[in-house]
Amino acid sequence: MQDSSSSVSEARAAGTRVVGFGIVAVVLILGGAGAFLLLNLPDANAFNARVEQLFVDNADLTSAAEIKLLEILAQSGTAFSEVLSGYRLVIFVLMLFATGLLVASLVFVVTIILLNRRIGAIERQGIQVSSLTINREENIVILNDMEFKLTGAAVETISVLAEARMDGDVLSGAQIEGMISGRDAEDCEEASGATRIKRLRDALGNQMVAELLIKTVARQGYVLAIDQNAIRVV
Length: 234
Description:
Elements: H1 2-40, H2 46-57, H3 64-125, E1 132-135, E2 140-143, E3 146-149, H4 152-166, H5 173-181, H6 190-204, H7 207-213, E4 214-217, E5 221-224, E6 231-233
Parallel strand pairs: 1-6
Antiparallel strand pairs: 1-2, 2-3, 4-5
Helix pairs in contact: 1-3, 2-3, 4-6, 5-6, 6-7
């Protein structure tokens, strides 16, 4: 159990480092790309400067039509400058959105990977149960800090499994039915015990938790995947 906890902690620490490095890399890459785009955009006053140069180079243009043309060019240069300024703002906002989306995607991907690893570890090792308390009088089962209110039949089933686990035994469906009904296992049907196991798993609610808590041993029967010392029946 300690090895599993340490491996989970190491995986979480590794995931945190990956997220940190990934965020820094995303910010640096997008920051560099944004700076490259902004620096390579034409200067907002480039068009105005060219128009001004036209005025200087063509000082002999004195007719009303020529002067009007130069004025139109000057106005176009001002409009072009405003458009470029708008482009810079749009690029800056888009880069911020892209950075946020990529960082969020990185966090989600790393989180999914860690969850898959953790689920895989649970599937391989079973549920880490520190305590299992069965209260027959109140029909309550306390698994770690989770309390389940079960039917009397479900409590009897898990009690039989707990007693067998403390003795290191694996019970078949017929043996479970026989111990609960008080008959010989030879006189009971395997399907009856299997039905009790199914009802117990359904009563526990979470399918994955129930399947990992109550293990099915091929050609042998059923057993609780819990440390013997963690079981207490009252």
